[in-house]
From TrEMBL:
PROSITE patterns: HTH_TETR_2. InterPro entries: Homeodomain-like_sf, HTH-type_TetR-like_transc_reg, HTH_TetR, Tet_transcr_reg_TetR-rel_C_sf, TetR_SbtR-like_C. Pfam families: TetR_C_43, TetR_N. This is AcrR family transcriptional regulator. It comes from Streptomyces pseudovenezuelae. The keyword DNA-binding applies.
Length: 217
């Protein structure tokens, strides 16, 4: 009598998303990023779909609710900012120039304009967000540490000081159009960066702001 053998289950490959589906998702995230920056997290999803050039069903197929879309936007912006920081660290050039590149890129991505939505719209302890935020803090700290070790960055500043300044200088003033002051953002950021150079011409009041301090603001 022959022994019965059990057939091994067939391993099926997970189908890869179609190229057009990926493009639609990217368009949705890009449109949402623009509109969240302009109007805040409560902008109607129908309006986001319209700007992205897709149907409402496509938005909901990719993002089951508003929280999922907001989280994807914030994480994608932080990921691109982190990539810019990694590129700056990989270069063997001037340490302060690496810090400058990061600051200007963070302003272009409007990462600090989006981050306030985190506490008001979804769980700020979501693993994807925590990973992106921790990586960002680690990279900025490494860039600043390199510039301080080279004697180019004043020693009485911390990561929170950088992010607070980027947040304040890359947002429009109350009562002004969101993008009408864009042409001044990098000018004002450079003025701030020049004030970070060592040797410091003055003593700063108070203590340096850490990321933990910033999260409590």
């Amino acid at each position: 009598m022959t022994a019965m053998t059990t057939a091994s289950p067939v391993q099926r490959k997970v189908p890869r998303p179609r190229a057009d589906a990926l493009r639609n998702r990217e368009r949705i995230v890009s449109a949402a990023r623009e509109m969240f920056t302009e109007f805040g997290p409560d902008v109607p999803l129908d309006e986001i779909a319209r700007r992205a050039g897709v149907g409402n069903a496509t938005v909901y197929r990719n993002f089951p609710d508003r929280d999922a879309l907001v989280r994807e936007v914030v994480c994608s912006v932080m990921d691109r900012t982190n990539e810019a920081a990694e590129v700056a660290l990989a270069e063997n050039g001037d340490a302060f120039e690496a810090l400058e590149r990061f600051v200007h890129t963070a302003a272009d991505e409007r990462v600090t304009a989006l981050c306030p939505m985190i506490s008001s719209t979804f769980d700020q302890h979501h693993p994807d967000l925590v990973d992106a935020r921790d990586r960002c803090e680690e990279l900025i700290g490494e860039i600043m540490g390199r510039a301080k070790a080279a004697g180019q960055l004043r020693t009485d500043v911390d990561v929170g000081d950088i992010m607070m300044a980027v947040a304040q200088l890359s947002r429009p003033l109350a009562g002004t159009a969101c993008f009408s002051v864009d042409r001044f953002v990098h000018r004002h950021l450079q003025l701030f960066l020049d004030g970070l150079r060592a040797p410091a011409p003055s003593v700063l009041p108070g203590a340096a702001m850490t990321m933990e301090d910033l999260r409590k603001v």
